[in-house]
Amino acid sequence: MAKKSSIETNNRRARLAKKHAAKRARLKAVTQDQSLPIEERFQATLKLAEMPRNSAKIRVRNRCEVTGRPRAYYRKLKMSRVALRELGGLGLVPGLVKSSW
């Protein structure tokens, strides 16, 4: 189980990223538009830099919903390999059959 503080920090980052997503996308589009004057693009870059760092989508870490583990994460199931194996062995994951031979 991951530390509660790490999980909460990541959740806070996800909320901030969702809240500021539209504004960040708008500013990013302005900075990349070559038809606009350089001064306007530079102002957009400065505004983008003033925004909170944790509002960037890239700072959100994929974590297991069950344990909070940040590594070996399956996006489709939103859990780590450890939790998947544990729940799969108990028969709690639909469609997952433990192989035996």
Can you characterise this structure?
It is a single chain. This protein is 50% helix and 4% strand. The protein is mainly alpha-helical. It has two domains: 1-61, Helix Hairpins, CATH 1.10.287; 62-94, Irregular (30s Ribosomal Protein S14, Chain N). A two-stranded antiparallel ribbon has the order 1-2. Strand 1 and strand 2 form a beta hairpin.
Number of strands: 2
- Helix segment count? 3
Question: Which CATH-level-2 architecture of the largest domain?
Answer: Orthogonal Bundle
Q: Which overall shape is indicated by the principal axes computed on the Cα atoms?
A: elongated
Head-to-tail CA distance between termini: 32 Å
Concise overview:
With 101 residues, this protein is mostly helical. It has two domains: 1-61, Orthogonal Bundle (Helix Hairpins), CATH 1.10.287.1480; 62-94, 30s Ribosomal Protein S14, Chain N, CATH 4.10.830.10. The chain has three helices and two strands, in the order H-H-E-E-H.
Characteristics of this structure?
101 residues; mainly alpha; Helix Hairpins; 30s Ribosomal Protein S14, Chain N; 2 domains; two-stranded antiparallel ribbon; 3 helices; 4% strand; elongated
Helices and strands, with pairings:
Elements: H1 4-32, H2 38-50, E1 73-74, E2 79-80, H3 81-89
Antiparallel strand pairs: 1-2
